[in-house]
Amino acid sequence: MSIVRLFARPLLATGFVAVGVERLRNVDQTAEQLAPTLKRIGSTVPSAASLAANPTMVARVLGYTQVGAASLLGMGKMSRLASLLLAGTAALNAVVEYRNAEASTAQERKDRRYQLLKNLSLIGGVLLAAVDTNGRPGLAWRAEHLVSDTQRSVRAMGKDAGRRSRKVTKQTRK
C-alpha cells in the first residue's frame, strides 16, 4: 500500500464515521430530516413505499452503513465496496441537506451552495476510492484478459492440430 493510500483512506473515512455516529445519536432528528425526501422517493418508486413509511429505520440503517463502510475504508478492507456504499449515503445526504437548508437570505443560499459543493466533493472522493485497484487489476480487466488468453490458446491449439493433421496425411501417403 502506498503512503498516500495509507493516509488518504482513513482521512476520507473520518468524516463519514463522524456523520454516521451523529446520525445514530440523533435518530429522531435524522428521521425528521429524511421524511420529506423519503416520501418523495416512495411516491416515485412504489416498491420503496414501505421504506419511506419508516424514516427512523432508514436513519438507523444510514448511520450504521456510514460507520461500517467508513471503518472498512479506513482500514483498507473491501475498500471498493465500502466506497460505493459511502457514495450512495453521501448522495442521499447531499439531497437531504440541500432540501432542508434555509435559503431565504443571500448568506443562507451561499452556505447551502457551499454545503452542496462539499458533499459533491466527498462523493467524488469516495468514487475515486471505489475505482482505485490498489495496484491490483480489477475484475473487468481480469475477465477481459482471461478471454483474450483463452482465444490465443484456442488459436494455437488449432494451428498445432492443423500441422499434426498435415504431417499424418503426408506420412499416410508415403
Characterization of this structure:
With 174 residues, the chain is mainly alpha-helical. 86% of the residues lie in helices and 0% in strands. It has 7 helices and no strands. The chain has helices at residues 3-25, 27-44, 49-52, 55-75, 79-100, 106-131, 139-173. It is elongated. The model has no long low-confidence stretch (mean pLDDT 86).
Give the radius of gyration.
26 Å
Separate helix tally: 7
Major beta sheet summary: none
Total number of beta strands = 0
End-to-end C-alpha gap? 64 Å
Low-confidence stretches: none
Instruction: Provide the helix percentage.
Output: over 70%
Q: Multimeric state of these chains?
A: single chain
Query: Based on CA inertia axes, which overall geometry fits?
Result: elongated
Strand proportion, as a percent range, falls in under 5%
**Helices and strands: which structural class?**
mainly alpha
Mean pLDDT: 86
Order of helices and strands: HHHHHHH
Secondary structure topology:
Elements lengths: L2 H23 L1 H18 L4 H4 L2 H21 L3 H22 L5 H26 L7 H35 L1
Helix pairs in contact: 1-4, 2-4, 2-5, 4-5, 5-6
Summarize the structure in short.
The chain is mostly helical. It is built from 7 helices and no strands.
